[in-house]
Amino acid sequence: MAELKTKKNDNDVNLFISKVADGAKREDCKAIIELMRKITKTEPKMWGSSIVGFGNYHYKYKSGREGDWFLTGFSPRKGNISIYILSGFNKSEDNLKKLGKFKTGKGCLYIKSLADIDIKILKELVMNSVKELKEKNSD
């Protein structure tokens, strides 16, 4: 099996965020760090070169593949901020209707800025995802 390239490391989160060129996006990243820090009660860590992750959980797929990953996190990309809602969005339809302007992938929420969304709803999405992953991990 191939080894994951994206791993937790000791790179400096603050230095990484300070290099985000767009000032508004940089400030959004700082706000997201505070939100995720409060929800997970963990400090941010770099995962790979461009993901800020919080917490840790062990996963194991039916295929036998397993590994460690963060509970939640984000990455400031050129066009948007990717927010990792790793439990997915199956149970989040009502919240997504109220969230604002965004796009989704399988486990990612893509936003242009925090001004485009309801931060209270984002907080709920992150909290629910973290809770679900912790419950799965304790089985």
List keywords for this structure.
single chain, 24% strand, Aspartate Aminotransferase, domain 1, two-stranded antiparallel sheet, alpha+beta, 9 strands, 139 residues
Quick overview of this protein structure:
With 139 residues, the chain is an alpha+beta fold. The protein has helices spanning 13-18, 23-40, 93-99, 119-137, and strands at residues 8-9, 45-47, 51-54, 57-60, 66-69, 72-76, 81-85, 103-104, 108-111.
What is Rg? Answer: 15 Å
* Helix content, binned percent: 25-40%
**How many H/I helices?**
4
- Order of H and E elements: EHHEEEEEEHEEH
Q: What would the CATH topology be?
A: Aspartate Aminotransferase, domain 1
